[in-house]
Amino acid sequence: MRELRLVGGGADSEHVVVETIDGTEQFALRVADLRRYLAEPAPTAPEPPTIPPREIQKRVRAGEAPSVLADEAGMSIDRVLLFAGPVLDERSRMAGEARRARARRSTPEAQLVNFGEAVDERFAAHGIDPATVRWDSHRREDGQWIVSAGWRGGESERTAEWSFSLASRSLTPMDETASDLLSDRPIRPVVSVVPDLPKARTAKPDARTAPLPLTVDRPAAGDENLFDAPPPEGGDSPMPLRAVEETEEQKAARARIPSWDDILLGVRRKRDDS
After folding, report:
1. What residues make up the domain containing 33?
2. Same domain for 27 and 62?
């Protein structure tokens, strides 16, 4: 495409003269076409929706991920991080401050301990590397900071949360798992280890099939020989005492009691079908 420049009016009032930059060629341009083109607004590309910087920082401080905000507003992740970066650093710094603070153990003695060291010992005691635990924090609308720990337990992602007081530099558990991490109790399981089994149908016992009682009344005086006497002619022999076998429901109840590894790691316990 060659560039043209305006020379001036043409031979009539309906045209103007334009020529090439080097002046070797001239052209006549209709004034009506030029006016119509200038009257039409130039097409502009639609601007993508944006979130104000203050709103980005507010929502990230409350715990939202920058990638979610970028997708929602059609903004590049780099632009969102331009405003969210300092807030992410603030969240990380607050989680670190909490780990250096104090917490009261959920034990009868209720002794004060270093929070980070206490929970790291609990994780390590159950075979979880404390370095793999993800620490974060966010601030609620009322200004309260919440510190969270996240880790992989079996097939599930697990979390625990504590409220962090900047004034007293202390933490308080906000859920049962958080409380267990500050106690000597096993951490509660995510899923039941063995599903409940349907109740087995059993026939109604009668006098011949029901188990005999474990206690027997002593015979009256003078009747001691009753136990040694043979059965009456044509009668049935007395049934021998027998141990009552454990039912399937009782076996399932014992199997539902989780081991310590099941509890912390969220692992389903293998059933013993033998």
Report:
1. 4-39
2. no
Judge whether 23 lies within some domain.
yes
Q: What one-letter code names the amino acid at 267?
A: V
- Put residue 156 in one of left, alpha, beta given phi > 0 → left and psi -120 to 50 → alpha: beta
Cβ burial, residue 155 (10 Å; 0-12/13-18/19+): exposed
Q: Summarize pLDDT for 205-224 with one digit per residue, the tens.
A: 554 544 444 444 444 444 44
Tell me the C-alpha distance between 55 and 168, whole Å. Answer: 30
**156 shares its domain with 274:** yes
Q: CB neighbours of 5 closer than 8 A, spacing ≥ 6?
A: 18, 19, 20, 21
Are 157 and 64 found together in one domain? Answer: no
Domain count, the chain: 3
Does 30 share its domain with 158?
A: no
Helix 77-99 vs helix 115-125: crossing angle, to nearest 10: 90
Token output for 224: 């001691």
Measured CA distances, 163 to 98, 112, 144, 171, 194 (Å): 9, 16, 7, 6, 34
Residue 82: what are its φ and ψ, rounded to 5°? -60, -35
Q: At what angle do helices 66-73 and 53-61 cross, to 10 degrees?
A: 140
CB 261 within 8 A of CB 267: yes
Query: Over the stretch 134-168, which tens digit does the pLDDT of each residue have?
Result: 999 999 999 999 999 999 887 888 999 999 999 99
- Dihedral of alpha carbons 121, 123, 127, 132, sign: negative
Tell me the sheet residues that pair with 28.
17
Q: What contacts 159, CB < 8 A, 6 or more positions away?
A: 148, 149, 150, 177
